[in-house]
Amino acid sequence: MPRDVDVAIARAFLSVVETGSVTHAARQLNLTQGAISQQLRRLEDLSETPLFTRIDRNLALTSEGRRLVPATQHFLAANDQLLAVLRRPMFEGEVRFGAPYDIIGSYAPSILRRFSQSFPNVRVTLVCKDTLVLLEGLKSGEIDIALTTEAKVGKQGETLRSDRLVWAGAKNGCAYQRNPLPLSLGAETCVFRPIALAALKKARRDSIPICEVSNMEPVRATLEADLAVAPLLRHSIPDSLDIVASEANLPKLPMFQINLYQAESRSPATEAFADCVQRGVAAG
């Protein structure tokens, strides 16, 4: 007849491994020393071999004890994961999530993957538009939650991360040396566009637009081809591009904030997704 391992026994074993003594393990688990010792004996009965040897006042693992540690860690992790699933509400419905084209590749994949694994019954619709358009979409009820890139945060927003706007271009490129300076910019609603143009005007650097769309693919294509430079957030620059060197005679650009906004009326699924976004952006 198969025998099951009690989770409490496994937890006591790992606690003794981590602390090096029954006394410390008892304090950690809020149990008596006798209870910890009894659980260790039960595990050794299952193993049919000693798991610890005493060195001075501490306990050290035997070779059999060391062999059990990875499996015990996996067993407890699986138990904790099962409990989390059992306690997690099974949301249904849809969350409409908006993010600008320039940061969607940096943050959205990990956020969407994590949320989908935790709440497979919730459909997430992704909307990729400029910050100004996303904020209007929140007001009109077209989207439920939005990440934005702004110089400052609005009344209903929450800043998750700050990042500097920098000039990006091709690796070992020379587009920044041309005059007028060739630029890849977003559409008229792009928040980076007026900042970059104003900085160039102040620096008395003439420029000419090469690409004017709020879509990362054509912007990236012109940069990789060394046809232009573009203002992008430092952490959103793909590996195929580089930050243009400071000696390139381009004006310094300001810090921006990555902000989170939620619609006034929101569902539990939206709040859970917001929590996922907060952790995902904070983790980078």
* Number of domain units: 2
The unreliable regions are none
Give the C-alpha Rg: 28 Å
How helix-rich are the residues, as a percent range?
40-55%
Total count of helical runs of at least 4 residues: 9
- CATH class category of the largest domain: Alpha Beta
Q: Which structural category do the helix and sheet elements fall into?
A: alpha/beta
Strand content: 15-25%
Quaternary structure classification? single chain
CATH topology assignment of the largest domain: D-Maltodextrin-Binding Protein, domain 2
Q: Return the CATH architecture of the largest domain.
A: 3-Layer(aba) Sandwich
For the biggest sheet, the summary is:
7 strands, mixed
Order of helices and strands: HHHEEHEHEHEEEHEHEEEH
Our measurement of the CA-to-CA distance between the termini, rounded to an integer number of angstroms, reads 50 Å
Give the overall average pLDDT.
90
Outline, from the CA principal axes?
elongated
Number of separate strands: 11
SSE diagram, text form:
Layout: H1 7-19, H2 22-29, H3 33-47, E1 52-55, E2 58-61, H4 63-87, E3 93-99, H5 101-118, E4 122-128, H6 131-140, E5 145-150, E6 157-170, E7 181-185, H7 192-202, E8 207-212, H8 216-224, E9 230-233, E10 241-243, E11 255-262, H9 268-283
Parallel strand pairs: 3-4, 3-5, 7-8
Antiparallel strand pairs: 1-2, 5-11, 6-9, 6-10, 6-11
Helix pairs in contact: 1-2, 1-3, 1-4, 2-3, 5-9
